[in-house]
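Pilot study result, target chain (505 residues):
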Amino acid sequence: MTTASTGGSLLRMRGIVKQFPGVRALDGVDLDVAEGEVHCLLGQNGAGKSTLIKVLAGAHRPDAGELEWDGQRVSFTSPHAADVAGIATIHQELDLVPGLSVAENVVLGHEPARLGFTRPSGAERTARALLRRLGHPEIPAGREVGRLPAAGQQVVSVARALSRNARLIVMDEPSAVLDSEEVDNLFRVVRELTESGVAVVYISHRLEEIRRIGDRVTVLKDGRTVARNLPARTTPTAEIIRLMTGRNVEYALPERGPTPTGEVVLEVDRLGRRGEFSDVSFTVRAGEIVGLAGLVGSGRSEILETIYGARKASTGSVRVRGRALRGGSVPAAVRAGLGLCPEERKSQALLLAEPVYRNVSLPVLSRFARAGFVRTDAERRDAGVATGQLDVRPADPMRAVRTLSGGNQQKVVLARWLLTGCSVLLLDEPTRGVDVGARGEIYALVRGLARQGVAVVLVSSDVPEVLGLADRVLVVREGRVVHQAPGGELDEARVLDLVMEGSRG
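Predicted structure:
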């Protein structure tokens, strides 16, 4: 194990073990976190990061090991116990209550009260003050949180953690849905927290963020600690990747092939949706990857969802192989050969309690039906072939999909469309929350599908990812396509100038 020296700790976890049926998720993990530091917890999907955080937050009881908090040995029997001790967690999949207001979510569980009665005005004052501190005074404290965009909901989740006066805040992929300016603002808040003595455990697959914000790094692999307390700013990236994967992994994207010249499969003509985007037109040929680059909130995801029929267009049309697609109908889109991997895979794509094979076969379940009964053996067999092609781990089609890591859940969504044999694949943030090893596998898969003739439309907040994968890039700003060019003719600086300054190409 690689290690570096460390000072006194606010948190010490030693030899933490957690076992589930058939899986030893944690196998003797160690973690030290000091007051006022940003401690980065790294590892591939499935390395044990989420399980360790759930042990720390009181959601799981460890089977073995010790936990010390502020010099005292403790055992958190519930999330409430950890919360009272001063530990707050901001999960990657946000646990806000969509039907409650921003203010109600911020103070949830410790509402301001007088004489036994809650005080809504006090909640709104608290929320507004925290939103100002976070640099987002424009978010209305009285608005239903479910009506906010993903980035706004992330801000509310951070505000809720701050409202608890936590001494340690766990941030799990906090920048995944934020644009570059919002990430800068997040880091400003993190620095303010650490200057006041609050410790932050920061989990991210974006290794460049670790250099900017981290103090020390702990790396997990296969449920074990393989490195502790590495200096975040000076440990070489190649060394961190080697520790995470057990091998040397390069960030290189698959080589771009010749310009696709196949038939036009997808035609989007002057598509618009009131208040979200307008006058969007482009075509995608068989075997071509078209990328949409833009800031969060620019309309990228809404364009994909409207093409797929999950939203109804106000204007324009979509054609697949020359035939008009009925707007606002997902079944019609699937029948026409479209598939969508949405941004929020857990809430929008997966049936978390169902097994892997059922999640894969869902769009074509009728294929396995006979006389009103589903031929489960055939369903499992065909789904198993698709997941095997993508190396979904563990290779158990009977396992509930909620027990898989984020990267493997994403592979299950992709396997669904592999089984369906779609001709147009819409990808919204395909590598969000996916580790460096699985990311390379997904890149290779997308390129492989394109070589087989699938037309791909890709949305990603990672500009180098869009430029590296896409044959052609459309830059989207405030709901409009402001520029388009071959991927090889743009660089990151040019794209950022277009999306942030509104420059025209």
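One observation from the pilot: DSSP finds 17 helices and 25 strands in the chain. A full batch analysis is planned for the follow-on phase.
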